[in-house]
Design a protein that fits this description.
Elements lengths: L1 H42 L2 H7 L4 H15 L3 H13 L4 H13 L5 H8 L1 H29 L1
Helix pairs in contact: 1-4, 3-5, 3-7, 4-5, 5-7, 6-7
């Protein structure tokens, strides 16, 4: 029985240290994003950002998807950026489509994806992800509106 307890304790310790290591790897990236957002807020005012978006759900979702597709990143940073955009008064349609496209569409890595998985597949996956980012944004925000 002791050996089983020791194995479990060893697995827990191993998992703990792997988690700490992962956090250590992510910390510089998160710090960089937060610093970048701070600089961005100094030089780009909320009014400048708002002027890009029309307030029309479909147009905002489309523009959010375009910006997210070009920017490309991981989910953790998209949530931080999304929170900043919502705080600046950007519509949920734009922010939601931005977050979904940021994570699912990869214009930056498209050449590598095409080389590894084939051009047709890479284009189809990215195109479908782009369209679905818009549809998911519209459906999500409309559902939230119904619930509230």
């Amino acid at each position: 029985m002791d050996t089983m307890d020791e194995k479990i304790k060893k697995r827990i310790a191993t998992s703990f240290f792997k988690t700490i290591r992962s956090f250590g790897v992510m910390l510089p990236m998160l710090a960089g994003i937060i610093l970048m957002l701070g600089l961005f807020k100094v030089y780009v005012t909320p009014e400048m950002i708002k002027s890009v978006f029309s307030g029309q759900p479909l147009q905002d979702a489309l523009l959010g998807s375009v910006i997210g597709s070009i920017s490309t990143g991981n989910p953790i940073t998209s949530y931080i950026i999304g929170k900043g955009l919502v705080d600046d008064g950007i519509s949920l349609f734009a922010v939601t489509s931005f977050i979904v496209a940021w994570v699912t569409v990869g214009m930056v890595q498209l050449p590598a994806e095409a080389a590894l998985l084939g051009k047709k597949f890479a284009l189809a996956r990215n195109g479908l992800s782009f369209i679905l980012a818009i549809l998911v944004a519209l459906a999500t925000v409309m559902t939230i509106g119904v619930i509230n």
